[in-house]
Amino acid sequence: MKFLVTLSIAFACLLAGPAHAHGGKHNDAANGVETRTVNESKEHTKARAYFTDTVLKTHDGYNVRFYTDVLEGKTVVISFIFTSCLEACPLINASLQRVQDRLGDRIGQDIVFVSITVDPETDTPSVLREYRKRFKAGRGWLWLTGDAASVEKVSERMGQVFERDAHLTALLVGNTRTARWRKIPAHLSDAVLAAQITDIADDNFK
Description:
The protein is α+β, with helices and mostly antiparallel strands. The protein has a single domain, classed as Glutaredoxin. The chain is 35% helix and 20% strand. An 8-stranded mixed β-sheet has the order 1-8-7-4-5-6-2-3, sandwiched between helices. Strand 7 and strand 8 form a beta hairpin. The longest helix is centred in the middle third of the chain and has 16 residues. The N terminus is likely disordered.
């Protein structure tokens, strides 16, 4: 089976489970962790075609291509947020701040945090740049925005409902070198989250 087809099916299966709406309850059965493995391939162009190289803007105002500049060759921890959120988002970000501290020097090296706003009209680069200071986000924690059409396209590829108050509150963790992805409830302890992320980054199959 061709890589693109395999990737599409596996990633769709991973994200097809219940996506917790904003402020909704979490299913903690077996920690709620879901893992899928996708066949490895050196045909990066097909992965790029799937995830797209849609151009988004970082919190520093730089244009980045979603697959080539953000995902490729890294383990990524993707979350969806918006800065005016008063419920789930601050909790998710605070948890990621603690995980960032646990993972130390690996953040910005082989592991990157990527927070994507679902309210791009409000969350401009300058707004995100100020907001990230609340969580002491380091150089390996990107905050992305862009025009609504571009953010929606990327969100859909990640199985995200592009709706501010119904966005995914789980973390999507993927190793793009091995094409191994996992959906992890964000409410788990920072120790558990760090262990899950490290497992994906180190590709330790159980």
